[in-house]
Each structure stands twice: as C-alpha cells, then as structure tokens.
C-alpha cells in the first residue's frame, strides 16, 4: 500500500516551472530514492510533500489523506519528518535540546525518553555529546543529530535531503548504513541524493528526475545497471 503518493504535481517559483507533472509513490516499508543533477527538482519535490511549497496543480496524498495544501507545521505533526539539505540543526542549543525540539508536541515524558533511547541505538555518538552545543559538532555528527531530531517526532515516513552532502567518504558510508538499518527496522524512507550509486544500492526503487520531470523509474539494481543512468549519474 502506498503511504505517500504524488499525482501530476506542478510547482512554480514565480515564473520558474520547477516540477512538471510529477508522479511518484512510496510504499510502506520502502526506501525510495530520487536522483538527479543540481536544480532538477529533488528538494522541491520534498518541499511539496512537507508543505513548504504548495503545488499549483496536482495532489499529494499521505496515508490516504489529501495534504496538498497543508502547512508544514501540520504536516510535521501528521507523521512526515523532513531533514532538510544542510541539516539546519540549532547551533546554540545543546544536542539534547535539539533532540527535544523534534518532540516538541509530545507531552508524555516517558515516550520522549523512549524515543531518545531509540536515537541512541542508531547513533551512540550522539549520546556521548548530549551536552555539547550543536554548532560545535562535526558535519557528520550534525547530520546524525538532524536525523535523530526527525526521529524524535515518531514519523511514519522519513524524508532525507542529501544527507551525505559535504561529508568525508567514511562518514557517508556510516550514514548510508544507518539509513539502511532504520529501514530494515521498519522505517519508510524517501531519500534525495546526489550520491546516486550509494542511494540506489540501498533503495528498493528509484526515480530519476531531470528538469522537473520524472525520466525513469525502476528498482535500485535495475537503475544501477542501466547504461543511461551509469553515464549520467554514476560516472
Ligand atoms: P539541488 O541539489 O541543487 O538542491 P534540486 O534537484 O534539489 O537541486 P531544486 O532545489 O528543487 O533542485 O530546484 C529546482 C528548480 O527550482 C531549479 O531551477 C532551481 O533554480 C529553482 N528554485 C529552487 N528554489 C528556488 C527558489 N526559492 N526561488 C526560485 N527558484 C528556485
């Protein structure tokens, strides 16, 4: 069953037609990746889902409900967590406070603690740095905090916008491993990546987006083995 479905989504920034009739879906339990070059429309696709960009036409359905025009704060509460490009953690807040911000709507202290333990399970490193200010962490650690903060909201789907950006190869490796583990333990994931090879390796399915249009769709392995994909995105 699809947890998320975009149908004929058209989105604009003023006169720029950024998404031209996008159709994608994500099934429960999948990792779906969206790959494409700079400016192809990957981030905009995530923004139309989280409500930061309202499509001019088309529909976004989440768990069967029309959320096309839903503002971001409502979307976040309804089970969609969006980890934006560049992570955007709060630099002056401690790691603990950053995590708590992810669960701001949760009143149950025990539930917050349980979710925090869950975050520590994936990111033991984060547990060691709880009292450190976010801004003093390395890029990889900040990405871990950003994903941890998203998990604190108890999402049904996790959307990650270029989680590997700007990180050293060994850290990228770790981040992909954790994304894979999160999925194996049940999390549905929509992953935007420039790092196409690694994203396709862990994805059940992938979409190739080019100048606002979906050009190809297939299993992660089929796309990795496709000559056009190889030449354009894996070289
Ligand atoms: P990147 O990896 O560079 O973020 P992307 O695939 O995520 O690329 P988008 O950021 O979705 O691409 O951009 C899609 C198109 O919309 C591009 O032509 C981009 O220049 C344009 N665009 C994105 N954000 C804005 C904005 N705030 N105002 C005007 N144009 C924008």
UniProtKB/TrEMBL annotation:
Transmembrane segments: none annotated. Residues 4-234 form the ABC transporter domain. Coiled coil: none annotated. GO terms for molecular function: ATP binding; ATP hydrolysis activity; branched-chain amino acid transmembrane transporter activity. GO terms for biological process: L-amino acid transport. The keyword Transmembrane helix does not apply. PROSITE patterns: ABC_TRANSPORTER_1, ABC_TRANSPORTER_2. The keyword Ligase does not apply. It comes from the Bacteria. Pfam families: ABC_tran. InterPro entries: AAA+_ATPase, ABC_branched_ATPase_LivF/BraG, ABC_transporter-like_ATP-bd, ABC_transporter-like_CS, BCAA_Transport_ATP-bd_LivF, P-loop_NTPase. Belongs to the ABC transporter superfamily. This is ABC transporter ATP-binding protein. It comes from Ectobacillus ponti.
């Amino acid at each position: 069953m699809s947890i998320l479905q975009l149908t004929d989504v058209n989105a604009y920034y003023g006169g720029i037609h950024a998404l031209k009739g996008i159709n994608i879906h994500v099934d429960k339990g999948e990792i779906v990746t969206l790959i494409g070059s700079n400016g192809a429309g990957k981030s905009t696709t995530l923004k139309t889902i989280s409500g930061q960009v309202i499509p001019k036409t088309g529909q976004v359905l989440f768990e069967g409900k029309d959320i096309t025009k839903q503002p971001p704060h409502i979307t976040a509460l309804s089970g969609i967590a969006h980890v934006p490009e560049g992570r955007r953690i709060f630099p002056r807040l401690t790691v603990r406070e950053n995590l708590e911000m992810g669960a701001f709507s949760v009143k149950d202290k025990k539930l917050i603690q349980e979710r925090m333990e869950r975050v520590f399970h994936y990111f033991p490193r984060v547990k060691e740095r709880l009292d450190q200010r976010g801004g003093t962490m390395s890029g990889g650690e900040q990405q871990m905090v950003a994903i941890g903060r998203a998990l604190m909201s108890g999402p049904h789907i996790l959307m990650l916008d270029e989680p590997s950006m700007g990180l050293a190869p060994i850290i990228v490796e770790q981040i992909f491993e954790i994304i894979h583990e999160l999925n194996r333990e049940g999390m549905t994931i929509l992953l935007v990546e420039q790092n196409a090879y690694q994203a396709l390796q862990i994805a059940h399915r992938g979409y190739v987006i080019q100048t606002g249009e979906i050009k190809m769709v297939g299993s992660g392995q089929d796309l990795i083995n496709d000559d056009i994909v190889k030449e354009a995105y894996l070289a």
